[in-house]
Amino acid sequence: MSMIALLSGLNWAEIGEACLATLSMLSVALGFTVLLGLPLGVLLFLTGKQQLHAKPGVYRVLSVLVNIFRSLPFIIVLIVLIPLTTVLAGTSLGVKGAIPPMVVGCTPFFARLVEIALREVDHGVVEATQAMGASTWQVIWHTLLPEARSGLIAAITVTAIVLVDFTAMAGVIGGGGLGDLAIRFGYQRFQTDVMVVTVALLVVLVQALQISGDRLVLRYSRR
After folding, report:
1. CB 162 within 8 Å of CB 102
2. If exposure means fewest CB atoms within 10 Å of the residue's CB, which of 27, 28, 114, 175 is most exposed?
3. What is the mean pLDDT of residues 87-116?
4. How many CB atoms lie within 10 A of CB 208?
């Protein structure tokens, strides 16, 4: 079977809608993940050993919670959070129903990447900022985050790619997007053409995210 014959029977309008749904899930979930994960990662860094506000007890509790949520398979998170998702989004299906578990599943992962990026900042630069009388907030906003910018961009890139994977898995519970299309038509109805196209589109999306992220890292890297 030629490629033209394989693709001739596709409903491109439906595929286009699935692409938009995937991009919508990705953008909204990534926004909330960064919004929640960035301060959590900063808090992990600040309370860590030999940091600005070292609190071993607080750090251990936060670290254990982050590790627990990171270790949960996303498919389990999807199912367990159905009641909470229904309360927050009004439904557990479609794009709205997929976003809350995606955020819950990825925020701890992103927070840990933020902590690692902040640890790469030269401690001498932080000490110099403190010596000039800067408050903790000023140290974070004017020193830590700018100095860790390339690492944070790389962390966002990796997180975005993980979220693409989550959008595909969300199709298991009718989350919409390319994953849902692949499961309903490619797997359940044995439509090979749909499966091939959806997988190809997901690969293209991941490559586009990676290339864009790498370019931004190179652009803002100070090394």
Report:
1. no
2. 27
3. 89
4. 10
